[in-house]
Write a structure and sequence with these properties.
Elements (H helix, E strand, L loop, with lengths): L8 H13 L6 H9 L6 H22 L5 H9 L1 H33 L6 H17 L2 H26 L16 H10 L6 H4 L10 H29 L11 H6 L12 H30 L9 H13 L4 H33 L1 H4 L1
Helix pairs in contact: 1-7, 1-10, 3-8, 3-10, 3-14, 4-5, 5-6, 5-12, 5-13, 5-14, 6-12, 6-13, 7-12
């Protein structure tokens, strides 16, 4: 395969869109609907506005101090010991979040397509695919994302087009759902659904130019948020007021509504193929970035050798919760609430330190 040694802005765009945009098809809308009900559709947009300044600050600091990646940025601003300690804290939170996310996707695959199969067997196969893909490296992951993103976009547009006639706009009322206080709280504490973007800074030095990382990443972020918001709006207008919070996998429920005449039946299988490809690619990228983060913390140059043990550990952690309901409504919800303040406050603390120590770190 002919793969460039340095990534381009379009590859950054593709990886970011897959990494963040997949939130529209997981259990996130069901999580939001538990508190805000039919107001879930604009919570991602408000949450994104809250964390967006933090992303700008991180990218600004990476460029100003000429850091290679996130861990290097922490070391340059805080010193090696404190910087690595902070990076390890970020690693623990994000690794736990990814492990719980992978469990939710495994349960989703089992419930929708392999109901009689064991969760353990599906998780093992899921882990094997992700490990095999992650070992290939960031260049191959970026190239694959670039090839796959047009097909994913086309399938998503087709879903929206086919389901549009089933939307009942009156269902967005009351506009604040279960109450304004719940909407504001969910928006404030769920900004960490976009925290995966911070992990992409581990690949900052893998791009041809720093501008490729910024331009590709920011454009993809805005498009991903618009996609998520519009798909959540579709969920809110297709499902009735009482059932919206009870729909575990709204994206796949939506595909049950679409049809292409009487000849094409079970068209949801068509969308399943692209959804599975995007799911595997997302977790391949996350596993690789997590391993890179761990390797940078402990100065391990050949960190790709750690992909297998970290992938296995992620599976073990993901299997600990009793069921997917506990995983989603308790553990993942609490982790999102914990991670969001860190995501909001930490970049500005680093900016303050950079301002005070500007001559020393540049």
């Amino acid at each position: 395969m002919n793969v460039n040694k340095k990534l381009s802005s379009f590859e950054m765009f593709s990886m970011t869109l897959i990494l963040i945009g997949m939130k529209l098809s997981d259990t996130t809308p069901s999580l939001f609907a538990q508190k805000s009900q039919n107001a879930l559709w604009y919570i991602p947009f408000l949450a994104f506005l809250i964390v967006l300044p933090s992303f700008f600050v991180i990218m600004y600091l990476l460029e100003k101090v000429q850091a290679k990646h996130l861990v290097n940025l922490f070391e340059l601003l805080l010193g090696k010991l404190l910087g690595k300690g902070l990076a390890f804290f970020i690693f623990l939170l994000s690794f736990l979040m990814i492990s719980l996310d992978s469990r939710n996707y495994v349960e989703q695959i089992k419930t929708l397509y392999f109901e009689r199969s064991s969760s353990l067997i599906i998780f093992v196969l899921f882990c094997v695919v992700c490990v095999f893909g992650a070992i290939r490296g960031i260049e191959v992951i970026g190239y694959t994302s670039k090839v796959l993103i047009p097909f994913l976009t086309a399938s998503l547009v087709l879903v929206i087009f086919l389901v549009y006639e089933h939307m009942i706009w009156e269902r967005i009322y009351p506009i604040f759902g279960s109450g304004l206080q719940f909407v504001l709280k969910e928006s404030l504490f769920k900004g960490s659904i976009f925290a995966d973007f911070i992990l992409l800074t581990m690949a900052y030095s893998s791009f041809k130019k720093p501008s490729d990382f910024k331009i590709g990443g920011l454009i993809a972020l805005f498009i991903a948020v618009l996609e998520i918001t519009f798909l959540f709006l579709i969920y809110a207008t297709v499902f009735d007021y009482n059932s919206i919070e009870k729909v575990s996998f709204p994206f796949h429920e939506i595909t049950q509504y679409v049809q292409l005449g009487d000849f094409f039946t079970n068209i949801e299988t068509f969308f399943m193929v692209f959804w599975l490809l995007a799911t595997f690619l997302r977790f391949i990228l996350l596993l690789y970035l997590q391993t890179w983060l761990f390797g940078a913390i402990f100065n391990i140059d050949e960190f790709e050798l750690l992909v297998l043990p970290l992938g296995f550990l992620s599976m073990v952690i993901g299997l600990i919760p009793d069921n997917s309901v506990v995983t989603e409504l308790v553990y993942r919800n609490q982790l999102l609430d914990l991670l969001t303040p860190v995501l909001i406050v930490l970049p500005f603390l680093l900016l303050a330190i950079y301002t005070l120590r500007r001559k020393q770190v540049t």
